[in-house]
Amino acid sequence: MQDSVANGSAERYSPRMKKLCSAVLTALVVSACYEEGPTIDLGDRDVALTILHTSDIHSRILPYTYDPPAPIEENGLTKENAPFGGIAKLATLIKRERARAKRVIYVDSGDIFQGAPIFNYFKGEPEVRAMSELKLDAFALGNHDFDLGVDNAVLQYGTWANFPVMAANWSTDRADVLGNKQLGSIISPLVVLDVKGLRVLIIGLGNRSSMTSLGEGGNSMGVTPYDPHPLVQQYINQWAPYVDLVVGVSHLGLDEDIRLITGTYRYLRESELSSSPGCGPSSEPGVLRCRVPGVRGLDLLFGGHHHIVLNPPKVLPDPDGRSVPLVHTGAFLQFLGRLDVITRPAKYAEPPRPDWYGREVIDHKYTLFPIDRRTRDDPRMQRRLAPYVQELALNTNLGKPVAFAPESLLRRSPSGTDSVLGNIVAEAIRTRAGVETDFAMTNSLGIRDNIYPGVITSETLFNVFPFENTIATMFVSGAEVQEIFDFVAGRSTARGCQSQVQVAGVSFTMRCDCAINNDGCCAAATRYQGEYPKACAENIRIRGVPINPNGTYELGSNDYIAGGGSGFIMLRRNTTQRNTGIPLRTAVEEWMQQQPPCTASYELACSDEVPDSSACQYKRVLENFGAPACVLPDGIIDGRIERRVGQ
Fold first, then answer.
1. What is the C-alpha separation between 638 and 389, in angstroms, rounded?
2. Over the stretch 51-102, which tens digit does the pLDDT of each residue have?
3. Phi, psi dihedral angles at 392 (to 5 degrees)
4. I want to staple 193 with a disulfide (CB 3.0 to 4.6 A). Which of 10, 49, 218, 334 is the partner?
5. How many Å apart are CA 644 and CA 647, to the nearest integer?
6. HSE of 532 in the Cβ direction (CA atoms, 13 Å)?
C-alpha cells in the first residue's frame, strides 16, 4: 500500500506512516496519523470542500446497456444515451471535477467486485488497478469484495491498491483461519487527509449484515463484524481535537446508515442485562427495547450496499440536533456524485461548539453526473484496460447466442410475488437432470438484471447471474418447510412484502399483515429471530398437495442460501446437503435452449431503419445459427406466490 498524495491536494496520513502520537482505543490500537511538513493556516474563514463519491461499481468497468427504470431515468440516465458506465468515462468526470474545485477528495463505499464477466475471468485485478489509477482517497470494504474468498481479496487489494482499504468495525483476530492475518494487515480503520490545510478524518465501515462467508454466510473468514455505534463514537472522541471534519464512508446499507446518525433500538432479554438504562418493555414478554443513541460529531456520511440514489441527500438530525447529510450515489457506475460543502469554525457555528470540534458543515450542494455515451473515454484509463479487454475477447465467447427473447423477462414482479425470470430460474433448478427435486428455491436478489428483448447471449447470462453459484439439494421435513417459508414471509414483510425468494414446485401465501390481523397462522407467529417483523406463511402446497409436517421433501436451491446466505440458517444446519457442482448459470442456459423455436414472423418485422431492433437481431441469428429457442413470458407467471398485506 502506498501513502500517496491525491491530485496534489490531499496528503494522506495513516497508521502505517511516521508517528508523532499514538492512541489506544478499546479493543483496537491505532497508531496515529500525523507527518511533519508545511501547514496551511485556514484561520476563521469559511472553507469549501468537494467530495466525489461512487459505490457498488460491481465490475461494470466496461460500458454496458440496460433498460433504466423510472427512478434512474429521473436522475438523468436515459435510454437514448446508452451505453452506460465504464471506468474510462468515470476517469474523465473525476479529472474534470477535480479541476473545477480547490479542495477535493474521492471516496467509494465498497463492492468494486462481482457483476460482469471481467471479474469472473480476472478475479478483480483490473478493478483495483483502475481505482488506484483514479487516486481514490478512501474505500470501505463491501460484502461482494469477498466473493472469491479472503485470499483473493488479500491478493488483489494487497497487490494493487494504493488507497486505504477500510473496515473500522471488523476484527480479524482469529489466527486459526487461513488468510485471516493477511486480511488484517491490509485493512485500516481510518485515514486522515490534509486537504490543503483542511484536516479530514475518514472512518470506513464494512458491511455486517450480508457478507458472503461472513455474517449470514457462516463467518468462514474468521472476521467478526461489530456494532459500529460505539466504535465510531470512540474514534470521533479520540480524533475530534486534531481534525476539522469527520466523514464516514460506509457499506452498511441505507437503514444502518440512518440508524448510525439518528440512533436505533436493540431488543434484549431481561435475563441478559444486569441493569437496563435506556430500556423499556417491548411487545414480547421478557424482552426489553433498549435505545442506542446515534453518534455525535459525525459531519458527513457516504453510503452504499442497497444501490439507492438519494438525490438530494437525506439530511438527518444527530443526538445534538446537528444536521448530517447522508449521501448514496447508486450503483454500477451509473452516476458520479459530487457533494460541495461549506465549513465554518465550530465556535462560530449555530449553535457554537467547543474549539476542539474543528469545523461544522453550514451548507451543502449535491450534483449527480450520469455516466453514459455523452462523456468521452479517458485515453490513459483505456490504455490501462486494453490488455484485459483483449484477453477477455480472445479467451471467451461472450457473444454466443443462447436463445431469443421477443419481450422483456423481468426479475421483479410489479405485484411483489413471483416474477418471470424468477420462475425460469427456479424451474431450471427443479427440472435440471441430476437435480429433479420436489421443489426449488432461489433468492430474488441473486438475479441481478432483467433480460431485455433480443438475443440472449452468454454475456447476458453473466450479467444476470454474475455469481458463480452452483445447485445444492437437501431433504427437509414438512415442519422445516414451514420454518423456511415463515422466515421468507418475515424477511419479505421487512421489505414491503416484496418476495425475497423465487420458487418452483411449491406455492404459498405470505402473511405480511400479522401486525394488524391475528387470524390463521398469524395467531402463533412471532418476530423471526427477533429481527424480522411478525409474519408467517400459510396454504403451503408442494406439487399441489398441502404439506405434511411429518413428510419428507427434496429441495433444490443455489449453494449460497444452502450455506446460510441471506439469513437461511435453517438450511445451513441441514446435514443431508449435496452440492451437485452444476452451475446455476448453466442450468438456466440449458432450460432456455429446451424451449420451442421462435416463429418466422419475428424476421419479417426487421426494418433497415432500425437495424438494432430485436427483430433484426433475430434475423441475423436465424441466418448465422439457425432458429433460436424462444423464451416468452406468456404462461410463466402462475401465482405460485401470493401475499396478504395490511389494510
1. 42
2. 999 999 999 999 988 888 889 999 999 989 999 999 999 999 999 999 999 9
3. -60, -40
4. 10
5. 9
6. 26
